[in-house]
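User: Just a sanity check before I run the rest of the batch. Below are the structure tokens for the first item. I only need the designed sequence back.
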């Protein structure tokens, strides 16, 4: 029983050990060309509170000069659900210029977002933005995808969503370890896009 428990927790331990030292705050995040913001759900077509907190941090990174562009990545797998455009609209309302925002409409999960950031958008270095319960997995997967990154862990209210996120991360760590090892293609690859290159000009 103890051996099974250790085996089950090994992927989560790996995530904390490898990615933990790269977790920062908005105030001390190293400069990078791009902030990569992961989707976190919509409420009535607008960013959920968790997603809004991520976008607030990304806007702060931009206004501080830590990053020069923001890549928003999320789910647009159906016509009535569009995370990237909702994220873009939120950033525009918070003073990030349109020319500095790039949208990835096929960021269906964390691996897809990291893999596509590197392979489709040509991102080599980034500051990742997510809640603390998710940021280490994002850092590990973006590292495996070839993106040199630090992460900003956005504070989150310890509510039911936070508790669910923590439990989910333990389960997702196993999948992440396999993705980091095998590095599969994302669900949708598609052609290279110039959005990030143009946003950085």
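Assistant: Here's the designed sequence for the first item:
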């Amino acid at each position: 029983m103890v051996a099974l428990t250790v085996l089950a927790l090994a992927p989560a331990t790996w995530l904390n050990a490898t990615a933990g030292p790269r977790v920062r705050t908005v105030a001390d995040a190293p400069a990078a060309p791009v902030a990569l913001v992961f989707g976190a759900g919509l409420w009535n077509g607008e960013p959920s509170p968790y997603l809004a907190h991520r976008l607030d941090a990304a806007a702060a990174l931009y206004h501080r000069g830590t990053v020069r562009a923001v890549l928003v990545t999320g789910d647009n797998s159906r016509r009535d659900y569009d995370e990237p455009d909702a994220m873009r609209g939120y950033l525009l309302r918070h003073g990030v210029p349109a020319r500095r925002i790039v949208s990835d409409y096929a960021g269906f999960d964390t691996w897809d977002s990291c893999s596509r950031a590197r392979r489709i958008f040509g991102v080599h270095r980034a500051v990742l933005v997510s809640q603390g319960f998710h940021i280490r997995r994002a850092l590990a997967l973006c590292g495996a995808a070839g993106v040199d990154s630090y992460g900003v862990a956005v504070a989150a209210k310890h509510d039911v969503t936070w508790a669910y996120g923590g439990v989910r991360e333990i389960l997702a760590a196993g999948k992440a370890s396999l993705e980091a090892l095998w590095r599969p293609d994302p669900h949708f690859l598609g052609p290279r896009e110039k959005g990030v290159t143009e946003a950085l000009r």
